[in-house]
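Honest question from a wet-lab person: if I give you the sequences of every part of a complex, can you actually get the arrangement of the whole thing, not just the pieces? Trying it with mine:
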Amino acid sequence: MGFFLTLVLLVVTLGFTWRYLGSYMAAVFDGRVHFLGFVERPVYRLLGTNPEQEQTWKRYAGAMVIFSAVSILFTYVILRIQGSLPLNPQHVGNVGSALSFNTASSFVTNTNWQNYGGETTMSYFSQIGALTVQQFVSPAVGIAAAMVIVRGFSRRNSKTIGNFWIDITRCLFYIMLPIAFLFGIVFVAQGAVETLAGTATIHDVLNQVTQTLARGPIGFMETIKQLGTNGGGFLNTNSATTFENPTGLTNFLSMWLILSIPVALTYTFGKMVGSIRHGVALLSVMVILFGVWVGFTSFAEHQNNPAVAAAGIHSTVGNMEGKEVRFGDTSTALFGISSTSTSTGSADAAYDSFTPIGGMGLLTGMMLGEVSPGGTGTGLYTLLLYAIIAVFIGGLMIGRTPEYLGKKIQAREVKLAGLGALVMPIAVLILTAIAVALAVGRAGPLNAGPHGFSEILYGLTSQGNNNGSAFGGLTGNTPFYNIIGAIDMLIGRFGIMIPVLALGGALAEKNVVPESLGTFRTDNGMFVGLTIGVILIIGGLTFFPALSLGPILEQLSHARFF
Amino acid sequence: MLVHLRRSLVMAVICMVVFGFVYAFAGTGVAQLFFKGQADGSITANGSTLIGQNWSSPKWFHGRPDDTGPYAANPKDNVSGGDNPLVANGVSGESGATNLGPRSKVLLADTKELVAYWHKLGVDPTIDLVTTSGSGYDPDISQLDAVVQIPMVAKATGISPSRLRALISKETHGPELGFLGSSYIDVLQLNEAVAKLG
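Yes, you can. This is the full assembly:
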């Protein structure tokens, strides 16, 4: 009952968010919101640009790639020299070069894969000045890329598709900053820690226990971590810790923050292209996939843990290994799907200890390319790639001209969409094969048997999709996994984003074909079904063999332990 | 190209200042001003109500076996501080779960050991009491987890089971807003209440 009410509350609050945050974001990117003009204008002056200065897609992509490279460099340098920087009350040393490279790539690509435990590896300076900064910037870059493809559909005969610097500045100041700050206050009021005072030592006279508690500026990092679908927490076990995610309420708000922007962007899309119905169609795809995944994952987590059951303990409250009492089994599964169907990857439990089918729910949420609802910006543009492929396939099946929102979908567009949709599976599967083939790769997993393979597959799927969640048993802080992971994350980010920008540029140049009887409808239930079919076929066919070696085999090996 | 580079450098500095330091310092300022207790870690006389501790004596209700719980059941795992969240779980000194998969032989053996540990204390354990949490220091247990420990605590303290049962009901927190998450008992608060009775 409680779980049902949680779902109802989530749907209702996200419904309002979809409508109002969606139209607000459209106003922000159309330049109709000015209440922070006094900060916006000095930033443009320092950058030497202004909203009238439009860019072609190539210049836009150039700005994006160079800015990301500079961001990686900044983050890398700070981590390498943190030992000599201020705000380091625990006196942690410099971070090693392979780990710094992995972490810098991770936070700049919105992945937030962490091969380190935050409380013992990162100084406050690094957490604030390097990692939190990228938690703001990387989602803004993702949303900017989504705006390019949206403008591709909304503009006609246009050589330009917006200005990268204007887009990210507006996104950062008008969307990310106010929401993150407001909810930061709520999180701290609920019990999240926010201090610069370093660790605290306590002594309990009742049981003679002495503890050292890791603290830090956690609460406000927490909200931008969720809102930006980043997922990289201050502490090692992320949102499972009480200092990051103290109550059932903050757990709910975390899910809302994660889902809000990806969901609302479909309204923004509908509004900007002048057809809310098209936004609703995309939203329906997201909601249906999300609903099915939540359904079977929470059912799976409500079952017994096979190993615990074999030890003679049968549960009425689901699989509690690796889960926290204050959240319970089903809410944890809901959090897990919210986090892995977006590019977030935060965790309020140990995903490694999920049941085989529950773990597969998390893994396949990512394998579908994170479109239900996906990351900030990345979810919308990845879904649009699938929609374009669906239009093309639908057109082929019934012999009608493939068009989407009046734009003819021709060879170039289909090639770019296909490229964008296939880059991730290719990178993930090849890198997984390499890791499994090499002894250094096989040394990674903690668990034996099929679960060990799942740990490797999960790690590279997570990084290739810029998710960042993990089956935590994988020992990732080795030169091999640090470097292969960084490559995976960079391909998964820019290998998709650059085709998306090219697609936006190509579409913007086209004129609109007037709708006729021969036009294949792209705003009805048929199209929603077709798009879901394309997503499941691409995701299912490419990953099924790998899944059958991992979670499926694990589920089917009754009464066997590894 | 050079224009991109110059703008990137300028933007990176702006972002570091505004979204790093201004954001975090303003947040810390607001938090310390209005919610000092929470922002400092909800620390009370006997520790943080948000961090589980090791309650090894049968006089106290035990928390979950998070290495910060009755790790005595698994002495071989207790290679590091045990109750110390900064050096928990014997891995590399962070908060941490076991990360053992659902068909792990190690998990099976550990659970059997924990079941035996509880039986020795005269407790018929529930699932929460033989599984470790996600953070490694779950401060809470469910109402049932406390109820099954009543015989152990009653025997060691001499407090009657009915008084302990009343105490447990009193210390049970409902889910947030009545339905978000699960109901729970904070083990530290429960034991502080037991100390007052005893």
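Two things worth pointing out. Residues 43-197 of chain B form one domain. The radius of gyration of chain B is 22 Å.
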